Task: inverse folding
């Protein structure tokens, strides 16, 4: 299967690989996975508490090229957005940007779930109920 | 059911009157004449496969009608697909789970517990670190391989226990538990695959 140039670019030069301190109250962590392909994806955001703007985003994905590219792109998009803007990122935006073929759409869904899980984890921490384990996104049918 | 050829009552694969092959059941358990259970007698399965293979061999249908030849082809395909699914405990369980509305979640993650994902993530991370190391990482990789292998064995014996419980009770809660173990097992098989690749 041929990957698009954008997928290859993110795959060969993934942006923002790494991790943030998951214990920090400014950091939201989301770990998601899809049993069918066995992929697992971790995405973290560090949020400026006073502005609500995501200042840093990191990811680490074990999976196929499309899953890596989807999460790499997601971290690029997250930086500079507010948490509420971040929640409006749709998997279809990722599909369009990366020209993902139908069989790889689930990779973009995974990335969207990871964003939601990370933001929800951050929000839970801010609400005081410091989540010990990263929340898995309570997803809305997309 | 009556025989499509002679009109006599027909409740087997072949009509008792005119011996014509009947439209085969599409379900694998029904086709092989097994109850819909997760535990199966694999020697008996193999025996039935050989017996049915002989009965459905194309050579036996060369002088039959086009309709019967088509049925023989259809039955052979169910015979082979059925064997592949029924003889493998995981495939067999996936088959039953899908029919019962517990198909593997393909795109959504909410059915996977976060603790499992964290564990899998950490294992992957450790594996990656070992892989990027030099030859001195080999003993650690071998330790990881036996660790993943024993996780796999643990999942398989857990499955065997759950299979027996569902066969006995028919309780759908057992199917949900089986779904969980199968999801976990899928990740473990990926880890085993990756560590084996790294050790090659």
Result:
């Amino acid at each position: 299967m041929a990957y698009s140039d954008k997928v290859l670019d993110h795959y060969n030069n993934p942006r923002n690989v790494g991790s943030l301190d998951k214990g920090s109250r400014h950091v939201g962590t989301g770990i998601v996975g899809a049993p069918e392909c066995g992929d697992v994806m971790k995405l973290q955001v560090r949020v400026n508490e006073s502005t609500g703007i995501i200042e840093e985003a990191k990811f680490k994905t074990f999976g196929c090229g499309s899953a890596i590219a989807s999460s790499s792109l997601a971290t690029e998009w997250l930086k500079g957005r507010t948490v509420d803007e971040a929640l409006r990122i749709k998997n279809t935006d990722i599909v369009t940007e990366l020209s993902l073929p139908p069989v790889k759409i689930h990779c973009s869904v995974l990335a969207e779930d990871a964003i939601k899980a990370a933001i929800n984890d951050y929000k839970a921490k801010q609400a005081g109920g410091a989540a010990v384990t990263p929340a898995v996104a309570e997803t809305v049918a997309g | 059911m009556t025989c499509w050829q002679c009109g006599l009552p027909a409740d087997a694969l072949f009509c008792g009157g005119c011996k014509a092959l009947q439209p085969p059941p599409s379900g694998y358990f029904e086709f092989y004449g097994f109850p819909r259970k997760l535990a199966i007698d694999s020697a008996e399965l193999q025996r039935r496969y050989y017996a049915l293979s002989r009965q459905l061999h194309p050579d036996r249908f060369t002088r039959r009608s086009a309709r019967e030849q088509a049925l023989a082809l259809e039955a052979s395909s169910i015979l082979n697909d059925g064997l592949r699914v029924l003889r493998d405990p995981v495939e067999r369980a996936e088959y039953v789970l899908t029919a019962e509305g517990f198909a593997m979640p393909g795109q959504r993650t909410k059915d996977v517990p976060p603790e499992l994902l964290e564990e899998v993530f950490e294992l992957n991370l450790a594996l990656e670190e070992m892989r990027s190391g030099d030859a001195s990482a080999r003993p650690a990789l071998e330790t990881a391989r036996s660790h993943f292998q024993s996780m796999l064995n643990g999942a398989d014996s857990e499955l065997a226990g759950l299979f027996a419980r569902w066969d006995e009770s028919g309780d759908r809660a057992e199917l949900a538990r089986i779904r969980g173990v199968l999801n976990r097992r899928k990740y473990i098989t990926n880890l085993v695959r990756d560590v084996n690749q790294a050790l090659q």
In short: The interface with chain A takes residues 104-118, 120-121, 124-125, 128, 182-183, 186-187, 189-190 of chain B (CB under 8 Å). The mean pLDDT of chain B is 90. Residues 1-87 of chain B form a domain with the Helix Hairpins fold (CATH 1.10.287.110).
